[in-house]
Design goal:
Rossmann fold; elongated; Nucleoside_phosphorylase_sf; adenosylhomocysteine nucleosidase activity; methylthioadenosine nucleosidase activity; Nucleoside phosphorylase
Length: 339
Amino acid sequence: MRILLQTALSLEFSAMKAYISDVKSETHSQTASKYERGTFSHHGNQAEVLIVETGAGNVRAADETTRALEYFKPDVAFFVGVAGGLKDVKLGDVVASTKVIGYEMGKDDDEFRPRLDTIPSAYSLQQIAKQLLRDNTWKEDLPMETRDQVKAYVEPIAAGDKVVASERAITFQYLRRFCSDALAVGMEGIGFMVASHAHNTDAMEIRGISDMISDKDEADASGSQPRAADNAAAFVFSVIRQKLADTRKRNDIKDVVFRGKLLNALVEMYSQGPEQDDIWKRAGGDVSILINSMNRRSQWYNALERLALGGGGANITLQTLIEQIRIDNPNSQNDLFRD
C-alpha cells in the first residue's frame, strides 16, 4: 500500500517522519520538488510512505498534491497538520474531516453570498476514524500523562486562505454563520481535496488544534503547535494501521477463492507468464525457481501457490506483487488491485 502524507509546515513534516523508517530523500525530475520516502511497518504489514511539505495556502496545496499524486500514485492521501479551533474543541484535540468546506467562493453583490465548495472525505477513512474514536485506541503513541487530556472528533473542517486570528474578525463571524458545523479551520484542505478528488484518490484531512482563534498568538508562543502536530500524527498513523489490517484481511493469498481471482486476473494481464515485463522479478521474486511450462496459466498457478506457502523468492510478498501490478496498470478498475 502507498500512502501520501502532505503537510504545510516543517514541524508537521517532522512529526510524520518520526513514524517511518529507511527514509530517503527524492527530487522530482521535472520540478525539483523535494520528497521523503520511507516505510511504515505494523504487525507484519507494510506501507510505502511519501511525505511532502506543500507550504501554506490552498493553491500551493493543490499544486503540490497534483504533482505528488502523479509522481507517487498512492492508494490513500492525507493532509495532516495544525489548525485553529472554531468550537467544541480545545488545544491538542484532533479533528478528522468528514468533509472539507472551502469557504472563500461566493458572489459579492449588495451583500456577500457564499457558494461553499464542499468535498467529503473517503467513506472508508471516515469509518476507520470513527472506529478509532469508539475504541479509543488512537492515543497509544501519545505520552501517558497527556492521553486523558485530548479528544478526537470526526467532523467538518473549513479551509480558506486567511489566517483567522481574532473572534472579532469578519472571517470568523462569516465562519460562525455559514460553516457552523466546522470544528476547525485551516488553509490547505480544500486545495488538497480538490486535487485528490480529481485523481480518484481516497483522501482525508486531519488536524491537531494548536489555537482557539481568540488566543492564537499566546497559544503558538506556548508551544501548542508541536503538541498539536504530534497528536495529529498519532491519529493519522492509527488510521493507517487499521487500513493496513483491513486490506490484509480482504486480500489473503492463502485464501483459495482470492487466489483463484488473482490467477484469472494475472493470466489476462500477463499472458506470457511471471517473466513478462519482469513482473515477478520486480516484485522481489526469483523466476528461476518457478516451473517452466508452455502453459502460462500453469506457471502463474505454481507461482501463486509458492507465494501462499511463503516461497517464490526472498523478497516477494503479495503486497509487493500488487504494488508492481498497480504501477503497470494505474487505471485498472479491478478491485483486487484497488485499495
